[in-house]
Amino acid sequence: MNETIDLMLSHSSVRRFTEEPIEAEHLEAIITAGRAASSWKNFQSYSIIVVQSEGKKQALYDLVPQPAILQAQAILLFVGDHNRASKAAQLHEKDFEAKGTENLLISSVDAALAGQNTLLAAESLGYGGVFIGMIRHKALAIAELFNLPDYTYPIFCIALGHPAEQNPVKPRLASKAIVFQEEYVEQGVEVIQAYDQVQTDYAGARQTETWSERMVTQFGQAEQPETKAVLEKNKLL
Ligand SMILES: Cc1cc2nc3c(=O)[nH]c(=O)nc-3n(C[C@H](O)[C@H](O)[C@H](O)COP(=O)(O)O)c2cc1C
Description:
- It contains 11 helices and 4 strands; from the N terminus they run ααβααβααβαβαααα.
- With 237 residues, the chain is α+β, with helices and mostly antiparallel strands.
- It has a single domain, classed as NADH Oxidase, CATH 3.40.109.
- The chain binds flavin mononucleotide.
- This is NADPH-dependent oxidoreductase.
- GO terms for molecular function: oxidoreductase activity.
- Belongs to the flavin oxidoreductase frp family.
C-alpha cells in the first residue's frame, strides 16, 4: 500500500544478531524516532538506558539468559519513570504521591508506544530486534544493576542488531476474531482452536506447545513476584 505499511506488515522479531556494530548515528536516529511517540499529557513517563558494554550485557544475560541479550549490539532498557514528576513536585514544593494503577498504566503505555516506534525505526534502517519482557521476572536485581531510583521500574528491553536470521512473518489472529464493529463480540473456543492450528502450521517442528497451551500456562500460574516487589520498593505500589 505504501512503504510504511509494508514495513509494519513485514515485522518479525529477530533474536540472533551478527557481530557488526550499529552505527552511532543510526542508534541516535532510532531512539529519537522512538521518542517521537505520543505520550500521556506529554509527560514522557519513561527513560531509556542504552547498554552496549560487554560487561553490562553479560550481567543482564546472567539474570535473563536469552541469547539475544548477549548477541545484541545494543540493548535498550525501557524504564517506567515518575522520578522526574517527583522533581516537579519538589520544584513547586508540593506533596508527591505516585502510587496507583493509573500512574502505572500511564508510564507503561508511554514506554510501550516509544518502544514500538523504536523497533520500527530500527527495522526501517535494516536492523532487527526483539522486545524482552522476561526481565520483569528479575526486576529487583535489574533495578539494582541499573541503579533505578524511587518512582521507576523496569518494563522491557529491546535487543537490537544486524539480523543473523529472519523468521517468516508470524500470522496474527483472524481480523474478525479481534476487530469488532460498534460493540464487543465475545469469542468462543473455536476461535482459539482455529488460531492454534494457524500457529502450529507456522511453527512446524519448532512448536513445543500450542498457542492456547502457552496462554494456559501464563494465566494458570501465580503472578511473578518481582514485578510487584520492585513497584513496592520504588514507591509506585
Ligand atoms: C512486551 C513484550 C515482551 C516480549 N518479551 C519477549 C521475551 O522475553 N523473549 C522473546 O524471545 N520474545 C519476547 N517478545 C516477542 C514476542 O514473543 C513476539 O513479538 C511475538 O511472538 C510475535 O512475534 P513477532 O514479533 O515475530 O511477530 C516480547 C514481545 C513483547 C511485545
